[in-house]
Design brief:
Blueprint: E1 2-6, H1 12-15, H2 19-23, E2 28-32, H3 49-64, E3 68-73, H4 75-86, E4 91-97, H5 118-143, H6 146-156, H7 165-175, H8 180-210
Parallel strand pairs: 1-2, 1-3, 3-4
Helix pairs in contact: 3-4, 5-8, 6-7
Length: 211
């Protein structure tokens, strides 16, 4: 029996540096970073849940090759669920910590939109993307500042003495990768698109009930 940890933005090994040694006394433990996060490659691809699911499933098939419990934090929790569904014969359990992330049904047909007008295609759409890149670029720059990272970590860690230079550096160093900002933009953009779709569906349901 083995366990696999996979986290979100944090690199998995520093994030679980106190959990892994204890679990390793009884189990074989792997800690992997999802593509685009932590110490993994900052690949310039279109990110969605199926990319991370395939990464975990391939790792289980090619490296682990034995019954496994998946442990996921935040987006890693969502990834653990879809990976478990994708490989039920090997995954015997999942543990979700602050699980988050929804990207819709990977098997659903893409929504058909009305034909774009010249104004939408050459003016509105490019301006929208520029605006998104400027705003998200600033937010990423702000979020990766060491003082900001330390402040956020101390707000969520019960024992703030665990928030040391090693933990802060495990976030700031991957964030310094030349492609990190672009990966952040692509990930947040798809998350916002899904959130807007869910919000719009909720508004439509409310309006229908009011009628």
């Amino acid at each position: 029996m083995c366990s696999i940890f996979h986290a979100d933005i944090l690199s998995d090994l520093p994030y679980n540096r106190y959990n892994i040694p204890e679990l390793a006394k009884k189990y074989k433990v792997y800690a992997i970073d999802l593509l685009g996060f932590g110490w993994s490659e900052k690949a310039l691809v279109e990110y969605d849940a199926m990319i991370w699911k395939d990464q975990v499933v391939d790792f289980l098939k090619e490296i682990v090759k034995e019954p496994t419990v998946l442990v996921g934090n935040s987006l890693g929790g969502f990834t653990a669920l879809v990976a478990a569904v994708g490989l039920p014969e090997q995954v015997v359990g999942v543990a979700l910590l602050n699980s988050a992330g929804q990207f819709g049904n990977a098997n659903s047909e893409p929504e058909k939109s009305d034909e774009e007008t010249v104004l939408q295609k050459f003016i509105i759409k490019p301006l929208k993307e520029v605006f998104q890149r400027v705003v998200l670029g600033f937010l990423f720059w702000q979020a990766k500042q060491p003082a900001r990272i330390e402040s956020v970590l101390k707000s969520v860690y019960k024992n703030t003495s665990n928030v040391d230079d090693y933990l802060v550096d495990s976030i700031t160093m991957p964030a310094a990768d030349p492609n990190a900002g672009e990966v952040y933009y692509r990930y947040v953009k798809i998350s916002l698109q899904h959130a807007c779709h869910v919000l719009l569906s909720f508004v439509c349901i409310v309006q229908m009930r009011e009628k």
